[in-house]
Structures are given as structure tokens and as C-alpha cells.
Amino acid sequence: MEVEGKRSPLLTVDEVVLLLRYSRSRIYKMARAGEIPSKQHVKGGKLLFDRAEIDEWIDTKLTPA
């Protein structure tokens, strides 16, 4: 998601799907279970993700090779 040439601090479900290579249903299940940091958008109830929180979450899940 880009806003005026800048990367938005928020990611959509589809962007997280592409980033993590998980299915949409898995992302929704993980968010519902609190397994991945997410935000509920006030207008329309859209599920969004803070880019910095997702980056940090990914870093905690990576294991050194």
C-alpha cells in the first residue's frame, strides 16, 4: 500500500498474504487468535496490520540458519 509515493505504515490482509506467503484464511485465523499483531479499522471493520509490528513479528519468527 503506497500513499503519495511513500509506503503506508499499514498493510492490508492481501499485502500480508504476499509478504508471508500464507493463505488469506490463515492470516484471518492467526489475527483472530492473537498469533499475529493486527488492528481493526474503525470504519468498515477492515483488518489492517502495522508494518513495523509485522516486520518485528517476522524477525522473532526467523531462526538463524
From TrEMBL:
InterPro entries: DNA-bd_dom_put_sf (IPR009061), HTH_17 (IPR041657), SinI_DNA-bd (IPR010093). Residues 10-59 form the Helix-turn-helix domain. One of its GO terms (molecular function) is DNA binding. Pfam families: HTH_17. NCBIfam families: excise. This is Helix-turn-helix domain-containing protein. It comes from marine sediment metagenome.
